[in-house]
Amino acid sequence: MARLLLLLVLIGGICAAAAASSPLLPAAETMRVSFAGKSEFRTVNRKPLGTCLDPSPYLEISVSTGGAPLPDEAFLNVTVSGVRRPDRSHWLAMITPSNSSVLGCPLNGVNYIETGDLASLPLLCHYPVKAQYLTSDPGYLGCKASACQKRRASGTCKVRTCAATLAFHVINFRTDVEFVLFSGGFATPCVLKRSGALPFANPAKPLHGHLSSVDSKATSMRLTWVSGDARPQQVQYGTGKTATSVATTFTHKDMCSIAVLPSPAKDFGWHDPGYIHSALMTGLQPCQSYNYRYGSDSVGWSNTTEFRTPPAAGSGELSFVIFGDMGKAPLDPSVEHYIQPGSTSVAKAVAAEMQTGKVDSIFHIGDISYATGFLVEWDFFLHLITPLASQVSYMTAIGNHERDYAGSGSVYPTPDSGGECGVPYESYFPMPASGRDKPWYSIEQGSVHFVVMSTEHEWSEKSDQYNWMEMDLSSVDRSRTPWVIFIGHRPMYSSSSGIPPSVDPNFVSSVEPLLLNHKVDLVFFGHVHNYERTCAVYQGNCKGMPKKDAKGVDTYDNSNYAAPVHAVVGAGGFNLDGFPKIGLHSWSLSRISEFGYARVHATKTDMLVQFVNSNTSAVQDQFRIVKGAR
Length: 630
Fold this sequence. Notes:
By secondary structure, the protein is of the alpha+beta class. It has two domains: 60-198; 316-626, Metallo-dependent phosphatases (Purple Acid Phosphatase, chain A, domain 2, 4-Layer Sandwich), CATH 3.60.21. The chain is 13% helix and 30% strand. It contains eight helices and 33 strands. β7 (178-183) and β8 (190-194) form a beta hairpin. α3 (343-354) runs parallel beside α4 (376-389). The radius of gyration is 26 Å and the shape is globular. 51% of the residues are buried. Residues 1-48 have low confidence and may be disordered.
């Protein structure tokens, strides 16, 4: 109902705006077909938009490639020249594919709002990958870069024009690129000039290789990568070993939507994902390093990378990093859909952590890319994490921004996935899950048994997932893995308030008893964008409190088990959530609203957890859980 009211408000506002439309916009044919196919909402979801009146005849858009095709990654200098009257409303969009519609579609604002993005963004009929106002060049309005286009007989300049140069970060997302210059700002755009298509040198290039564990033996690792070519490719690893890939893909028909308003994934946010290749490397040994490369002679090969397998179940030690809600952010001054400002600092800090050689695996627990139906953003996210996920096992849990949408079967019918409904997530991150659209799993590394659930799929008693959790927790061999860590996305405990609330009491009442009954030691959740740690808590009451050790570190003694300790680690990139100044709960022992991640080191008897500020590398909270042999 709230979504329908929002839609009616936007329609009313846009109709009023149309009645007083700008004289700068000439009549043009209204677009009737969206980029992804016919839109059920096409009669009102399009507005006329054409070439601006009297554009300068000297306008040019030049790109710093020298006419060569685009490389796999570049920071392009894009120069707009020949502007007769610089204006604050001038902006430049990077669109892909180059034949995408640049007609104006103001109701596409609903497509942004439904995923939670309230930023001011250009409302075109096909989502622009990124955009910048020409005022990003500080000399633009003052015409600091000028040229004389026409001279008088006396030799003095008769027509002088101005220029701006902007930097755009581009990566190989396979489809060609075009830069389009607009006037009228984001709200009332009209086209001034198009650059023409800029293709990538190798759209089939294998890219973004990332690793995941497939079982607890650590003798096999899965490698997943993206390419524009469907033919089988290979991963070459170790001393002469090879594994052949299986390629899959998905189309906009696999995205979900509702009849009244097409989802971003189904309509103007669609981007062809190419092909997702996956290959299984076998015959490995735990805690060993191997070199690998992937691709083929026909499409090219990746660079050679070194990775390390995690420790096998039952071995003495494990070190891992865990965070949630990362997303991505532009590496240039552009605006994009759904920017997560802390994502780059967290990625860089984890990369620095990995250089110490003390990271065996990474857990990213929901809200992975925040693409939310704007599918080219998966490529940018995969590019961001490649330095991390190409070297150690990168394990994931599904979140609301990967799965939820009306009519999709999610527990929560919010439109948070933008119509993706888990399809891109499961394609890019194949976990050792129970089955398709059953993204829960368990895995053991070192002294830890991990249980990874989906808070977005049914978890009530007697559901498939509930029965699986109960069975898995009942089967843990504590002599092999004395620690049990439970992982999901939405938390059971959080001091931060929100609309809707971050904590679902039905989820807590259904699943929390399982944690206590099976003596789960530690619980990690995300979803709330900060860090928070509890006492040993059950049903909102502290069953056990930590004591300071000799170094002053809070220490929970689980030799006499009381209840799980919960930690929210959703500070991986999204805009931070604060904490109330009054009315704090007694179970909340530590609260930090800074970007960062948790690093964990577990032996058979001692587990140290530290929250690391990604901007300063400072440890801002730490605690231990200890126990004797069980």
